[in-house]
């Protein structure tokens, strides 16, 4: 206790870091729609809803495309014998074969380009979705970090002088204003004072956070039993470590006390970050087994990003400052909050989340499996088109190769992008698979009905009395019932 009394007079004020202002990430209209939809409750359910909304937007075009493809396949099947004959006849002349096939297509109303426009539209929607989810995942990771920084700053500010009209001492020293409160341990020193009027609290409040410095009043802080106990323990540990280190400089108890004092408030702020993560961030980012839905469902990814990953994301984003879109380099002119040292201090007590597996590749496998199944069903619905698209029948093999390439491409996407994107892919693939099966079944039923009617008409023409006989038999059956 006597040591502390001697130290407080020697220590004086101790500087402490409080991080600058955080800024909102700019969101375009698609990002705002995603934010609105996923705000309905569970973020995973919100992403599924958003995926379904996109699919329903393109559904009319998708239905048209799949009906057109199915009809073309049926027409090709009807011309199977002629197509096989052409393949044998022009086996050694691919150019002439293609010409004859085009003539056959024209004769039977077969158009291989009828489904191209809907397919292009679907591809455009897909690219838009990739960009939207990629941008929104970056936005969410930065916003979640902003939440933690704000929790850090808020905890430090709990120990700061209040900027109100009661009990606040304001003094001017050169170009600085000192704002102190008798019940607080930390006070502001606001730089770059111009046209200051004494006790002008509104002016002080208007000064941006990043223009303030923060100092710990050692006398008041060390008078608090909890802080004193923390500092005493830290100083004792530092002294013991110093004594064990051969050739270490003489132990400076004053400097170690300053370090321990800063450490106390920083530790308190970092505890507040952990609370904010568990209460505000975790619930917004977790879904089923995934810890952070805005990162890949993989064991090598973690709920809290490494700074290199975080920096990559913020370098791609635009921040909203006073209604203007600015890049990271411009933002760092305003604040130090997105720099590496700050990031490490803020997330210091989240080591578990930095090393925890974000997922177990389940969504990645489901993405690959559903796209493979969807492509397989689509190929089966175009069997005849593939078979006769080339003179040597290699169209089917080329289509299989295309299926493998598409599956590989989507597998790469699943590893590159967030779990949210994988959820979108799975939802989209399942929707497409279901719609393909339903449309194929409906078109086949309509075609079968047409074939039955055509067959009946043919029978009627060949046997004039056949129709009347059938009608009489049906009428007799009805009368008996």
Can you walk through the features of this model?
- It is elongated and about 120 Å long.
- The chain has a five-stranded antiparallel β-sheet.
- The mean pLDDT is 76.
- It has 19 helices and eight strands.
- The protein is an alpha+beta fold and 481 residues long.
Layout of strands and helices, then pairs:
Blueprint: H1 2-11, E1 13-16, E2 24-25, H2 29-38, H3 43-78, H4 80-89, H5 94-107, H6 116-157, E3 168-173, E4 176-181, E5 186-190, H7 201-206, E6 212-217, H8 218-222, H9 225-244, H10 253-285, H11 307-316, E7 319-321, E8 324-326, H12 328-331, H13 340-346, H14 351-355, H15 362-380, H16 383-388, H17 395-416, H18 419-462, H19 464-480
Antiparallel strand pairs: 1-6, 2-7, 3-4, 4-5, 5-6, 7-8
Distance between the termini: 109 Å
Characterize the largest beta sheet: strand count, sense, and whether it forms a barrel.
Answer: 5 strands, antiparallel
Mean pLDDT: 76
Number of strands: 8
Structural class assignment: alpha+beta
Strand order of the largest sheet: 1-6-5-4-3
Order of helices and strands: HEEHHHHHEEEHEHHHHEEHHHHHHHH
Q: Which outline best applies?
A: elongated
Number of helices: 19
Helix amount: 55-70%
What is the C-alpha radius of gyration, as a whole number of Å?
36 Å
Residues in β-strands, percent: 5-15%
Low-confidence segments, given as residue ranges, are none
